[in-house]
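Re: the request from the purification team.
They wanted to know what the chain is likely to look like in 3D before they choose a buffer screen. I agreed to run a prediction and write the result into the notebook, where they can find it.
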Amino acid sequence: QVQLVESGGGLVQPGGSLRLSCAASGLTFSSYSMRWYRQAPGKERELVAAISARGSIRNYANSVKGRFTISRDNTQNTVYLQMNSLKLEDTAVYYCNAQDAQSYWGQGTQVTVSS
């Protein structure tokens, strides 16, 4: 059974930082590209960042470029999202996604940026 478990969300002030983690099990993690999505209330889910299976290719949404960094540790079956200089508009539920021939999702972790 595939499981993706996100952690690291919380409440942070504007300008602050958080690091999200997504621990994967039940799949060959190193074969999957990994993605972070987010969904704010009343909005569509959007792709935030993606990393290739071996970590050599990373892509970011324009809205987070230069502030967020995606990384992975294939020995720990974990993908990370380092979020710096957080803004009010970064508030959302953040979801981890594993993508190969099949697609798997985590349950999400809430990130709230508020003063």
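For the purification team: The two ends are 40 Å apart (CA to CA).
Please add any questions underneath this entry.
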